[in-house]
Design goal:
single chain; 5 strands; binds iron/sulfur cluster; about 40% helix; 2 domains; Rossmann fold; alpha/beta
């Protein structure tokens, strides 16, 4: 999770306090279920109050005719750049925006769309589209296409966390998400540990902030918010692979596109560990 650069915060601060200008905002969706944009709307009065402090120029979920020739201070991007049109829009919005904030798992980790990367891609597309000819690219996270300034994680994003972050953006406070595991929130709330009960749970390595909402419903954590910094991936993977088949473990890691980041981090930890020996 990257820290919002200080100078960018200062820019917003000056704009708000000295020039008395409102930041111009765009909110766009790529390929997604639109759930994260609906979380914004679900905030009701809190979100409307925030809107009074900004100039919302583009919100494609709500308006038919976007204004394509404007520049923005902050662009919020939900969804994954699956199609050529998505990629074009994303690059265009990056060029026209000072900050680019990604919303949710689809944008940050590839989301459920990334499932096909781990399967036989051709077979998967045939199952869905049958004989229709459609492009079948590998799914990649938004930061493979453009620079991302800040990520708000989750599937969907958490409303309280969203409001806290967008408030911090406006008062020019550097945004830094606490780097704790989901286990902490789970145990603080007194939920039963599903890992100890014999289920695959990625809570020990997943970034907290969701209030362990899945564990509340006795559903194990499948890592939709990605990894927290300093997660002890090797310990959890060793435990899981000693107690479950590789296929079972990978299947859970693939649901929200976490598998590639988990395996990538594991490899880099091993390389660094070998170097320091
Ligand atoms: S992250 Fe989840 S809720 Fe948000 S758009 Fe993607 S699938 Fe929907
Ligand atoms: S159920 Fe999962 S998140 Fe909760 S304490 Fe156990 S491993 Fe951690
Ligand atoms: S418990 Fe895990 S899967 Fe559920 S919302 Fe939190 S991070 Fe996502």
């Amino acid at each position: 999770m990257k820290k919002l650069k200080k100078e960018k915060g200062i820019y917003l601060y000056k704009m708000l306090k000295n020039k008395k200008l409102k930041p111009r905002i765009a909110i766009i969706g790529l390929t997604s279920c639109e759930g994260c944009q609906f979380v914004m709307l679900d905030q009701g009065k809190r979100f409307l109050n925030w809107l009074k402090k900004v100039e919302l120029d583009e919100f494609r979920l709500l308006e038919d005719q976007p204004m394509p020739d404007k520049n923005y201070d902050i662009c919020f991007v939900e969804g994954n750049p699956v199609t050529a049109e998505n990629i074009k829009l994303l690059k265009e919005m990056r060029q026209r925006s000072k900050f680019l904030v990604v919303l949710g798992n689809c944008a940050a980790l590839g989301g459920v769309w990334e499932l096909k990367n781990y399967q036989n891609k051709k077979r998967v597309i045939r199952q869905v589209y049958q004989s229709m000819r459609v492009p079948n690219p590998d799914i990649k996270e938004v930061n493979n296409f453009v620079k991302v300034d800040l990520t708000i994680p989750g599937c969907p994003i958490d409303g309280d966390e969203l409001m806290e972050i967008i408030h911090q953006l406006l008062i020019a406070k550097p945004v830094r998400l606490p780097q704790n595991p989901v286990c902490e929130e789970c145990q603080m709330r007194g939920y039963e540990c599903l890992l100890q009960k014999g289920e695959i749970c990625l809570g020990p390595i997943s970034l907290a902030g969701c209030k362990a909402v899945c564990l509340k419903s006795k559903q194990a954590c499948w890592g939709c918010r990605g990894l927290f910094e300093g997660a002890q991936i090797k310990n959890l993977m060793t435990y899981l692979l000693n107690n479950f088949s590789r296929e079972q473990v990978y299947r859970v890691m693939e649901v929200f596109g976490a598998r590639d980041s988990i395996m990538g981090q594991l490899r880099s930890d091993e390389v660094n560990g070998n170097k320091s020996r």
